[in-house]
TrEMBL record:
This is IS4 family transposase. GO terms for molecular function: DNA binding. The lineage of its organism: Archaea, Methanobacteriati, Methanobacteriota, Stenosarchaea group, Halobacteria. Pfam families: DDE_Tnp_1. It comes from Natrinema soli. SUPFAM superfamilies: Ribonuclease H-like.
Length: 432
């Protein structure tokens, strides 16, 4: 079976995803390339992508410089390396990320019912801490700085669909725009995006949605969606919260009428009503209902609706991968432009990891590759992959003894070691 795994398999997939010519062309368009190339832009890009995965390394420019030197076996002046971290480099990385999002896709179908949708999308956001002096990223606490990464994850192709970086105080709901792009797509989201007006707009644009029903929501029941045997409690015409405590059935499946306010127009705000489906599945541990509001058709049973909402956990796992494995919360910089650059680099790391996972899934369709286990393995081999890429571009293998000497020596001759400072103090006392 392992005969399928040639030594250059990973290298070929990565260089096909980002050919050197593509990186060079975009770099020239973005005015990133220097006239006198002390730094190879192609290897710098790969250093930012693979260097983000190196285990235990703080996300500092010095750390990326060490990874670059190890992969190219070149000594680079610190100032020259730091000067490369510009808005133009961030634009280059953003262009490459956009390119990768179109290339990296692993289509799959969870069940036949999913053929009803063009795609299944999951919207969410996560907060991460930044250097406290970054006033451009205000946090909810005045003595801190924080950023919020907003993502739309495509569960159908296992890729990122949209992303946006804001300060921590920006509400996630403001970053999710509804429109015709939602036609035929199913959107899963949590209560942070909860809005009756948003539900109506998704429906009016031909899309589907699924989210939890707020605990204080008490819509009017206008119809039942299935028959019950015996003397079941009649629900139409009653408020949802008024009947839940009296129900003993395992599931609830009703049509409700929701009243909401339209967006203000010409100084006036109108009120409208719309009907949606509310599904409830009894939780055996708490003996209450998990309630969902949706416009999914009846071919999705209540238990399938509840299971489908569980798919939203995929984006939570994605955020955990970005934070715990790729160091999204380890930015050691007070420069807002570098923060934006490093966020794009982290997303590129994630996309590259997914691209390699797709190769192995295609070669070994019967083998299971758990996402977190895959990500940890990818991280542990990231520096080796980077050095292999460097050799494919003509750089020699790293001179380990030279790297040890260069990085471990005292950078400033005037800086004394502790023992030298103590000896100097005694010498001064003796001479006095």
């Amino acid at each position: 079976m392992l005969t399928k795994l040639s030594p250059d398999l990973i290298r070929r997939r990565l260089t096909s995803l980002f050919p050197a010519a593509l990186i060079e062309d975009i770099a020239r368009e973005r005015d990133v390339v220097q006239r006198h190339r002390t730094i190879d832009i192609t290897m710098l890009v790969w250093t930012l992508i693979m260097g983000f995965a190196v285990d235990g390394e703080a996300r500092t420019i010095a750390g990326f410089q060490r990874a670059y030197s190890a992969a190219t076996n070149q000594t680079v002046a610190r100032s020259s390396f730091y000067d490369r971290f510009t808005p133009a480099l961030e634009a280059l990385l953003s262009d490459l990320l956009e390119h990768a999002l179109e290339e990296v896709a692993v289509p799959h179908t969870i069940a036949p019912q999913f053929e009803l949708f063009r795609e299944v999308l999951i919207a969410d956001a996560t907060v991460f801490r930044l250097h406290r002096l970054l006033s451009e990223f205000p946090a909810t606490h005045s003595d801190q700085s924080g950023a919020k990464l907003h993502l739309v994850h495509n569960a159908t192709t296992q890729s990122l669909e949209q992303f946006q970086l804001t300060d921590e105080c920006t509400h996630e709901s403001s970053q999710l725009r509804t429109g015709s792009w939602l036609r035929g797509r199913l959107l899963l989201f949590d209560l942070g995006f909860y809005s009756f007006r948003r539900f109506a707009l998704i429906e009016e644009n031909g899309g589907f949605f699924l989210t939890r029903l707020k605990s204080n929501a008490n819509p009017l029941i206008v119809g039942k969606r299935r028959k019950w045997r015996g003397r079941a409690i009649s629900l139409p015409g009653r408020r949802l919260q008024d009947v839940l405590d009296n129900l003993t059935r395992e599931i609830v499946d009703v049509t409700v009428e929701i009243t909401f306010k339209r967006r203000p127009y010409a100084g006036k705000q109108s009120t409208d009503t719309i009907e949606f489906r509310v599904v409830g599945v009894r939780n055996e541990d708490t003996d209450d209902y998990h309630l969902y509001v949706t416009n999914l058709p009846d071919e999705f049973t209540p238990r399938q609706v509840a299971a489908l909402y569980g798919l939203r956990w995929e984006v939570e796992l994605l955020f955990r991968e970005l934070k715990s494995l790729y160091g999204l919360e380890k930015f050691q910089t007070s420069d807002p432009a570098i923060v934006e650059l490093l966020v794009v680099a982290a997303l590129l790391t994630l996309v590259v990891s997914r691209a390699l996972l797709g190769v192995f899934q295609e070669l070994f369709p019967e083998t299971v590759f758990p996402r977190e286990r895959w990500a940890k393995t990818f991280r542990s081999l990231a520096q080796l992959i980077l050095e292999d890429l460097g050799q494919s571009f003509g750089y020699p293998p790293p001179n380990l003894s030279e790297l040890m000497f260069r990085d471990a020596r005292q950078p400033e001759k005037s800086r004394l070691l502790l023992s030298e400072r103590v000896a100097e103090a005694f010498m001064r006392r003796s001479s006095a």
